[in-house]
Amino acid sequence: MPVYVKDSGVWREIPDLYVRDATSFTNKTILNGYVKDGGSWREFFTLYTTSAYSSSAGSVAVPTQANALHVQYAVGGGGGGMGGTDYDRAGGESTGSSGGSGAYVSDKVWTVTGGETLTITAGSAGSAGPVSYSATAGSGGTTSISGSTSGSLFSLTGGTGASCAGGSVSGPLRSNTAGAAGAATIGGTVKTTGTTTDGLNITTFASGPVGSFNQNGSGAAGTGNGNCSGDNCNMAATAGATSYSGNVSGGTAGAAGNGGPYESGQVGGAGSRGSGGGGGGTEQGAPGGAGGAGEVYYRFMRIV
Fold this sequence. Notes:
Elements: E1 3-7, E2 10-14, E3 32-37, E4 40-46, E5 58-61, E6 68-75, E7 92-94, E8 104-111, E9 117-121, E10 135-136, E11 143-147, E12 151-156, E13 163-165, E14 175-177, E15 184-186, E16 190-191, E17 215-217, E18 227-229, E19 295-301
Antiparallel strand pairs: 1-2, 3-4, 5-9, 6-8, 6-19, 7-18, 8-16, 8-17, 9-11, 10-13, 11-12, 12-15, 13-14
């Protein structure tokens, strides 16, 4: 809230208020100012009001009077699911394994320095895996925040893409590997208690996907049903790995085929919010789904 003084007939905004303690004004910044109006105290000055949330990436300047960063949610990108495939009298068919999910943060607060520059990156989604006898779906990118003064606050690696290897049209059947989970590395100074200058108790922050304060963790690994036995066998694939500790679903599993060209329901579904892509079904083989893109959502505040 701005405060103005009249100086030679002109109203001027002042950025800071101080009180004189003995003979010095040093380090006596007023955080909140009040006036008595009709018998009631009313606040007329707050040094810093908590900012609106932002998802902006790139170089972001910390407001001068802010000293903390609340990350409501952040997650690395999800890995893509692998496509299923079929064979010519090889004694079986293959479903695609699903992608892993990215590591996450939910309602966590860090100390930052007013005026420093944060470098904010949201991880990309892992690409979908093709119908193939040997291939790898794309891995999700890393989501991170690092400060020019505060150093690395967190790095959330993405889930890896599912893969397959060693197959050929007339056999042998391929091997199938599900995507791995992303990992969280937490740095900086994490705040676990405190109240902002505009009266927010940080321990009550629980609006992120996990639903409770000060949470972070690894993603989840993908899964797979592997190969079915017998020419022209049919089998569904598996869904992509969930993100945010199971609170966001992965891409849907591709359904089992009917022996003809693949249909839309056999294609693995795309993940969302850092979850893994679903595997493609068989038979005939269908592509997997892309992973969900990483994300970051934050705001600045001043904690006293």
